[in-house]
Amino acid sequence: MVMGEKDLVKNPKVYSVGDIMRMQPVSRFHFIECGANSAMEWGNVAVPTVQYTHGMVSCSEFTGVPLIKLLDDCGADLKGVRFIMAEGADGSHENRTIPMSLVMSGEVLVVYGQNGEMLRPENGYPLRLVVPGVEGVSQIKYLRRIKLGTSPFATKDEVLGYVDLMPDGRLRQYTSVMEVKSVVTSPSGGQVLMDRGVYNVTGLAWSGRGKIKRVDVSFDGGVNWKEARLEGPVQNKAFARFNIPWVWNGKGAFLQSRAVDETGMVQPTFQEMRKIRGTRSVYHNNSIQTWQVEETGDVRNVQLANS
Predict the structure, then answer these.
(1) With contact defined as beta carbons under 8 Å apart, do 240 and 204 qualify?
(2) How far apart are CA 127 and CA 150, in angstroms?
(3) Which CATH number does 2-172 carry?
(4) What is the pTM of this model?
(5) SS (H, E, C) 177-227
(6) Interatomic CA distance for residues 246 and 155, integer angstroms
(7) 181-302 has which fold?
(8) Strands 181-186 and 299-302, how do they pair?
(9) What is the per-residue burial (b if ≥16 Cβ within 10 Å, else e) of 71-101?
(10) Mean pLDDT across the stretch 47-59?
(11) pLDDT digits (tens, 9 = 90+) for 67-121
(12) Cα–Cα distances in Å, from 65 out to 19, 111, 142?
């Protein structure tokens, strides 16, 4: 159902899945990342492998209808609406505030398909919202209601949960954009280099603000950087694969990747993040990840004092 506060919607409507599937669809690739991805690493090294440090993120092809099309169909006052609330039919009635600026961009989708098939039950069947670039909790599954308003809706998981604890004890709210981030996936924690020689260092980069522009890789803990090759096509708010050859000489090394997006945002170090956010936060950790390659070839998760 699409509804709203007084005078914001001329014709509130209830849409069936069939109604939406008869509209002109679009298909786009986007990542979805949990706001708590990499959460356990804020204070110190906590987990061993990339699946644990960065595993709460994925990238899929989504098929559906831009939400703005439904609002147009309902006669919504697009100039008067400043926020929408999306609500799911799950047990917790998950609901989130979405700025109207994102909806007006045409990026926000009411989705019924994923990777060439209908949504699976665990992914929100029959309908879900996809809001590219923002934390996963805003990608409402089992979508049942869209409400239009003029101010944030202050739902439970945006004023009490999914808030950023600052060093002075205050809680920062409505910080849903997932900032530029990258990680080397191979070699990475738990893997072993069997012998000296050439290795393809590869990984993933993504940003909630747009396309990835560049990824640099360091083999000495951030002292020197080399630009990696991005594998095309590089898409908006989606995974970008990077590769760079590296000759391992059998000595210890510290592998890092640093992404830059099209807005100029540069992935920060842990040191830079902690100066602003402290060490007790949970959400939105996009710090540079370090993998130590030992002389034995074993790779493990570490954090360096200067990064």
Answers:
(1) yes
(2) 25
(3) 3.90.420.10
(4) 0.95
(5) ECCCEEEEEECCCCCECCCCEEEEEEEEEECCCCCEEEEEEECECCCCCEE
(6) 48
(7) Immunoglobulin-like (2.60.40)
(8) unpaired
(9) beebebeeeebebbbbbbeeeeebbbbbbbe
(10) 97
(11) 999 999 999 999 999 999 999 999 888 999 999 999 999 999 999 999 999 999 9
(12) 11, 6, 15
Interval 116-127: pLDDT, tens: 999 999 999 999
Contact 208, 134 (CB under 8 A): yes
DSSP helix/strand/coil, 1: coil
Structure confidence by residue, pLDDT tens digits, 277-287: 999 899 999 99
Residues with Cβ within 8 Å of 116's Cβ and at least 6 positions away in sequence, in order, are 61
pLDDT score, position 199 = 98
Q: Answer yes or no: are the C-beta atoms of 160 and 109 closer than 8 Å.
A: no
Structure tokens at 104: 């007006």
**Sign of the alpha-carbon torsion through 247, 250, 253, 255:** positive
Mean pLDDT for 191-219 is 98
Report residue 279 as tokens. Answer: 């060490």
Q: Hunting for tokens 């923002």 — which residue is that?
A: 134
What's the token pair of residue 207? Answer: 């940003």
Using the predicted structure, report yes or no on whether residue 6 has a pLDDT greater than 80.
no
Per-chain mean pLDDT for the chain: 95
- CA separation (Å) from 290 to 50, 190, 198? 11, 13, 20
